[in-house]
Structures are given as structure tokens and as C-alpha cells.
Design goal:
This protein has 199 residues and is α+β, with helices and mostly antiparallel strands. Helices cover 53% and strands 14% of the residues. Helix 4 crosses helix 5 (116-141).
């Protein structure tokens, strides 16, 4: 999913993320609404908890206080490499700096922020808050993907269900936006211009 998803308004962003899930076609209309609401609420709840527990608004500082390592990878680059990945097993986040820098080069033409380094820090902060949510899923709240389960295999009265992976992304995007405030203000750009020209 591209960074531009976080720039969408809440409803459109959540719908886009849910539609990207392989199980989307199995959901009833009620389940779609329920799933989005539950994931969105978890993102807001986690953000409220974080803001009441930590006075700092720098995701790096909070992650350090939580004991989560941030590994910076400066070499990996390409169209299929994400901005970052949370590794629950190792309690670490891998930040793909070259990919983030490429995004910042695209964003700099739209922003009022004069220095690329300042914009890089702000974009990185959004990305790290996103991964911080995944850490909170692993350590405090449980996976948002399990908030709604969908039967995938049925043997008579036995049903095997699975969670909806997109709910973790919906929760993470909501969490990140709640932590930094409106993205348009945070990154100091005209959202309509960015969305019109694309990233």
C-alpha cells in the first residue's frame, strides 16, 4: 500500500484498505462496517493510551523507551520494498531509509517545509508510529486482524475461521494520524494538490 493511502480521509482510507484484503468478498455489508469500526476504534484507543502514557511526540523516543530497536537499512531500494517492517519475534523495526528518502523527494515539491531533512524526520515519524501500533498489537491489545473473523472452510458443523489482515493496517493508519494530527497540517502541504498529482 502506498503512502498516499494515509492522505485519504478516514472513510475512504479505511474502505480502500479493507477492499485490498483477500477476504473482502466474503464479508457481508454489516461485517464490513463492523470490521472498519472495530479497527478504527482500536487505533484511536491505542493513540489515547499512548498520549496519556508518554509526553514525547517523537516515535523514535517512545520506541526506545519501550525497548524496541530501530534498524536502519540504507541499501535496500525498489518498487516492492516497504517503508518499514515490524518484526515481533526480534522486537525490532527495520526502516528502509532509501525508500523513505525517495518518498520525501516526491513530497518536497508540495510542502511549505524548506529543509528536506525536516520533512524526512516528519515522514519517518508517521511511518514509525504506524509500526509502533503493530508493536502494541503484539504486546498490549492483540492483533486487530482478529477483531472480526470470517469462516473460510466449513466441514458440516465445523467451521474454520480466520482474521482480516487489513484491520491491522486500518488500525495502524488511524493510530498514526491520531498521534501526529491532521497529515495536511503536519506535513504542511495542500492535500488536494498532492492527491491530484499523485505520489
Amino acid at each position: 500500500m502506498s503512502f498516499s493511502v494515509i492522505l485519504l480521509d478516514d472513510e475512504e482510507r479505511n474502505q480502500t484498505l479493507l477492499k485490498s484484503d483477500p477476504l473482502f468478498h466474503r464479508l457481508t455489508e454489516y461485517q464490513k462496517i463492523e470490521a472498519i469500526n472495530k479497527a478504527d476504534n482500536l487505533g484511536r484507543e491505542a493513540s489515547a493510551w499512548l498520549q496519556s502514557s508518554y509526553t514525547n511526540r517523537d516515535a523514535r523516543v517512545i520506541l526506545e523507551q519501550m525497548g524496541v530497536d530501530i534498524i536502519t537499512d540504507y541499501h535496500s531500494n525498489g518498487p516492492f520494498i516497504p517503508f518499514s517492517v515490524y518484526r515481533e519475534k526480534n522486537n525490532r523495526i527495520i526502516l528502509y531509509v532509501a525508500v523513505v528518502e525517495k518518498l520525501v523527494e516526491q513530497l518536497i515539491v508540495y510542502t511549505q517545509i524548506q529543509h528536506q531533512e525536516v520533512l524526512l524526520n516528519k515522514v519517518t515519524n508517521i511511518i514509525l508510529f504506524h509500526e509502533l501500533f503493530h508493536h502494541l498489537e503484539a504486546t498490549k491489545y492483540g492483533s486487530a486482524s482478529k477483531l472480526v473473523k470470517v469462516p473460510v472452510i466449513t466441514f458440516g458443523i465445523i467451521k474454520i475461521s480466520t482474521g482480516i489482515q487489513a484491520l491491522s493496517e486500518i488500525g495502524a493508519h488511524t493510530f498514526a494520524r491520531e498521534c501526529v494530527g491532521p497529515i495536511e497540517s503536519y506535513l504542511e502541504f495542500n492535500l488536494k494538490e498532492v492527491m491530484k498529482n499523485g505520489l
